[in-house]
């Protein structure tokens, strides 16, 4: 199967799962913004995305995407380290063209996964998982009271700081990942390379700002 | 008149692929600025021979930037920091300052084992070319030059891709030891021309399979290769190779 046993195939898997996750982030960011306007509206979405069969199936699909993306990331990195060989250069000069994010995607990815673990513990565990267990008050509040959990989480400054670090890492990861995915899928060239880069930067910035605004709003005025 | 410069040269000595290797150091005195980097190494070797020591081994051939044999990693950059795209042989000592320390290393990549000192084995590139970097021609009468019309833009672009000399700077610069810039240029030079189209799918698959088999890494689009390429090959070629390969696999 070429998606496993060829270098370009493995990268195609990284690109496609990456793009799918970017689409999910877009949805998630849009959903979060609702919390700025209406607590009821936000909780309606939480209710809708509770332990319903379609939400559970979508969550499993999402988890599969994340797992595949991570497994391939480590697989590719191990191969790349072997290809590099054991001898390191004594002196290296990084060319200006080379972006920092592009050479640190694995590290950024690891920060993103750690942030994801914290996020799942803060929200998913108390919400969908609590409902699946049949204990709607697992985290103190009702499982569908997403708004309450946002207020609770961001009332603690430590979480706000960790979420900001998480979002910063995600921004770097996305700015490289976006055009890189298009390049790997072959939809790039001398003209489209610059276009994808600009589109990717704007898109990632908007998505991350949407997340950031919600986190900072609730940490500053706690849902007043 | 250029000034003469004196500097400390650190050059890599290694007896073979299994040897650990080390740096030797030497104060180079009064080297004219118009000396090319390779001529400076010739001066070093003359001194070594006079002292009864073993000369420093490095690859070189045409010394006019077209053969792709020279391959030195100078002060952290393949072919050194030349102003425009150029190879080591066209790097001149006037680019350095009096009192500098100049570090010379071989290409370091699992795909290019060291033969001796800074000479590395790049036959892997030949093997990739043998896997598919050609067109199968039916011998016979030469065709009229205008029998197959080719848009000027395509011809120019194909020529730009064909200007890749296969020096391996892309692999040397890549943190993944990936040969994608080389392979993509060699695939592109034929993919852009009508004569290359009939075998395009087979070529992309065969050359990538060989590249993977020889242990080159996976491209992660860092663009380090493009930044150091002496022939200014673009990563647009890599996108084209990806396109050719994916299309070929989907048509299987």
Structural commentary:
The complex is a heterodimer of chains A (224) and B (252). With 224 residues, chain A is mainly alpha-helical. Chain A has one domain (2-86, 99-221): Up-down Bundle (3 helical TM bundles of succinate and fumarate reductases), CATH 1.20.1300. Chain A has helices spanning 2-5, 7-37, 39-48, 53-84, 100-103, 105-124, 128-133, 146-154, 157-184, 190-221. In chain A, helix 2 packs across helix 3 and helix 6 packs across helix 9 (157-184). The longest helix of chain A has 32 residues, at 53-84. Chain A is globular. The mean pLDDT of chain A is 94. Chain B contains eight helices and seven strands; from the N terminus they run E-E-H-E-E-E-E-E-H-H-H-H-H-H-H. With 252 residues, chain B is of the alpha+beta class. A five-stranded mixed beta sheet of chain B has the order 2-1-5-3-4. A two-stranded antiparallel ribbon of chain B has the order 6-7. In chain B, strand 6 (114-116) and strand 7 form a beta hairpin. Chain B has two domains: 4-105, Ubiquitin-like (UB roll) (Roll), CATH 3.10.20; 123-250, Alpha-helical ferredoxin (Fumarate Reductase Iron-sulfur Protein, Chain B, domain 2), CATH 1.10.1060.10. Chain B is elongated, with a radius of gyration of 20 Å. At the A-B interface, helix 2, helix 4, helix 9 and helix 10 of A face helix 6, helix 7 and helix 8 of B.
What does this entry show, briefly?
Chain A contains ten helices and no strands.
Defining traits:
heterodimer; A: 224 residues; mainly alpha; 3 helical TM bundles of succinate and fumarate reductases; globular; B: 252 residues; alpha+beta; Ubiquitin-like (UB roll); Fumarate Reductase Iron-sulfur Protein, Chain B, domain 2; 5-stranded mixed β-sheet; two-stranded antiparallel sheet; 8 helices; 34% helix; Helical_ferredxn (chain B); Succinate dehydrogenase/fumarate reductase iron-sulfur subunit (chain B); electron transfer activity (chain B); SDH/FRD_Iron-Sulfur (chain B); 2 iron, 2 sulfur cluster binding (chain B)
């Amino acid at each position: 199967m070429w998606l496993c046993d060829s270098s370009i195939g493995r990268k195609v898997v990284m690109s496609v799962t990456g793009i799918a996750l970017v689409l999910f982030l877009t949805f998630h960011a849009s959903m979060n913004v609702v919390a700025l306007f209406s607590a009821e509206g936000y909780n309606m979405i939480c209710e809708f995305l509770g332990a319903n069969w379609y939400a559970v199936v979508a969550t499993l699909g999402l988890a599969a995407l994340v797992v595949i993306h991570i497994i391939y990331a480590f697989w590719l990195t191990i191969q790349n380290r072997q290809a590099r060989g054991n001898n390191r250069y004594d002196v290296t000069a990084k060319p200006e063209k080379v972006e920092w994010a592009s050479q640190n995607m694995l590290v950024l990815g690891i920060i993103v996964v750690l942030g994801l673990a914290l996020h799942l513990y803060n929200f998913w565990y108390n919400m969908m998982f609590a409902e699946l267990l049949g204990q709607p008050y697992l985290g103190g509040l009702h499982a569908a009271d997403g708004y309450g959990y946002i207020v609770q989480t961001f009332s603690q400054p430590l979480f706000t700081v960790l979420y900001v670090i998480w979002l910063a890492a995600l921004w770097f990861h996305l700015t490289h990942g976006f055009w890189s995915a298009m390049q790997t899928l072959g939809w790039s060239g001398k003209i489209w390379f610059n276009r994808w880069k600009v589109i990717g930067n704007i898109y990632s910035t908007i998505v991350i700002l949407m997340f950031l605004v919600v986190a900072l709003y609730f940490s500053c005025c706690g849902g007043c | 008149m250029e000034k003469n410069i004196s500097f400390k040269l650190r050059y890599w000595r290694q007896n073979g692929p299994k040897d650990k290797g080390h740096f030797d150091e030497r104060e180079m005195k009064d080297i004219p600025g118009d000396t090319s980097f390779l001529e400076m190494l010739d001066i070093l070797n003359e001194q070594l021979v006079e002292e009864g020591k073993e000369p420093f081994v490095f690859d070189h051939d045409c010394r006019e930037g077209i053969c792709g044999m020279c391959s030195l990693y100078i002060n952290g950059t393949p072919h050194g920091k030349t102003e425009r795209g150029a190879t080591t042989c066209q790097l001149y000592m006037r680019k350095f300052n009096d009192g500098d320390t100049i570090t010379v290393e071989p290409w370091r990549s699992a795909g290019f084992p060291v033969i001796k000192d800074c000479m590395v084995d790049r036959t892997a590139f030949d093997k990739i070319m043998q896997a598919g970097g050609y067109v199968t021609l039916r011998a016979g009468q030469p065709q009229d030059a205008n029998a197959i019309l080719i848009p000027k833009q395509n011809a120019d672009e194909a020529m730009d891709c064909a200007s890749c000399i296969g020096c391996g700077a892309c692999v040397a610069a890549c943190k993944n030891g990936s040969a994608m810039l080389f392979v993509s240029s060699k695939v592109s030079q034929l993919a852009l021309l009508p004569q290359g189209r009939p075998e395009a799918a087979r070529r992309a698959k065969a050359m990538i399979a060989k590249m993977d088999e020889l242990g080159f890494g996976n491209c992660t689009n860092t663009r380090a290769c493009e930044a150091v390429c002496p022939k200014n090959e673009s990563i647009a070629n890599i996108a084209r190779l990806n396109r050719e390969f994916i299309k070929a696999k989907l048509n299987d």
